[in-house]
Amino acid sequence: MLEIGKYNTLTILRDTKVGLFLGDPDNDPDGIHDVLLPNKYVPKVFEIGEELIVFVYLDHEQRPVATTLVPYILLNEFALLRVNYINNVGAFMDWGMEKDILVPFKEQARPMEKGKRYLVYLYLDKQTNRLVASSKTNQFLSNDNLTVEKGEEVDLIVSHITDMGINVIINEQHKGLLYKDEVYDDAIRTGDRMRGYIKNIRPDNKIDVALQAQGFESIEPNAEKILSELRASRGFLRLNDDSHPEDIKTVLKMSKKSFKKAIGSLYKEKLIEIKDDGIYLVKE
Q1: Phi and psi, residue 217, nearest 5°
Q2: Does a structural domain hold residue 73?
Q3: Predicted local distance difference test score (pLDDT) of residue 228
Q4: What percentage of the chain carries pLDDT values higher than 90?
């Protein structure tokens, strides 16, 4: 069965003047659910019965069509897309296909502007059977039944940034919050993807996340980062226990607390020397 908005592995059924017709004869033996791969996407060499991996979406007449173009977003996923134009039905965004994807006005968290990028979710509208996108992303997330645990490493997407912190999407399923005072990268923007850790799960199922593992596990990556910086700086960093937190943040993108833990670990392993003017790498 064809899956609209996703990649499909389909068999070449027949060759025509307009292109190849593809289908899944194992699931659809009568070829009822075949789909056209237009000539411009047909490979130079092919054989009837050969399998092709294609993306299936809806053309201008809402008919399923296959393509070898690479979409920027798949069905039931999130992505940061750019608005190409706006008309009387909504905003149309570039998602890598010939036909732009529609974000109806009612699905815009705030009025969209041409040329700007917004985080959206791609879904199949059951009423119209059309692929559409929405920037009201919270409706596609739920913390009712959590699939993550404290301390677990997870995938994060930056949703939006507020005075309280950075709202993130966890594993494309749940909502979470990353506190600003725990982030040491000023370049984080909406749509950024990164790895993170579940820091805390509150009684109401709200989730706090961090970009570094918590507790003892966080020492190892921070220590490795400091070692890398030392090697790149000829074995010396002008930082120590007395350094200002902003200086540590600027050089290492970590908090002073994490820095002190890390250099304590390195010192115990006799990998560094801590002096009044900074830390020195012990000859390796």
Answers
A1: -65, -25
A2: no
A3: 87
A4: 64
| CB within 8 Å of 234: residues ≥ 6 apart | none
Rounded CA Rg of the chain: 25
Q: Are residues 86 and 125 in the same domain?
A: yes
Mean per-residue pLDDT for 2-11? 94
Evaluate whether residue 166 is within a structural domain: yes
Helix (H) or strand (E) holding 245: helix 245-252
Mean pLDDT of 70-95: 97
Domain ranges, residue 89: 78-138
Cβ–Cβ under 8 Å, residues 241 and 260: yes
CATH assignment at residue 197: 2.40.50.140
Cβ-based neighbour number of residue 13 at 10 Å: 18
Q: What is the pLDDT of residues 206-242, one digit of tens each?
A: 999 988 776 545 556 788 889 889 988 989 999 988 8
The pTM of the full predicted model, rounded to 2 decimals, is 0.76
Q: Structurally, how many domains does the chain consist of?
A: 4
Instruction: Tell me the β-bridge partners of 117.
Output: 82
Residue 133 lies in a domain: yes
C-alpha neighbours within 13 Å on the C-beta side of residue 103:
31
Q: Of 205, 73, 235, 185, which Cα lies nearest the Cα of 196?
A: 185
Number of H helices, E strands in the chain: 3, 18
Pairing of strands 6-15, 51-58: antiparallel
| Domain harbouring 223, CATH code | 1.10.10.10
HSE on the CB side for 35, CA within 13 Å?
28
Which of these three, 43, 67, 91, is where a domain ends?
67
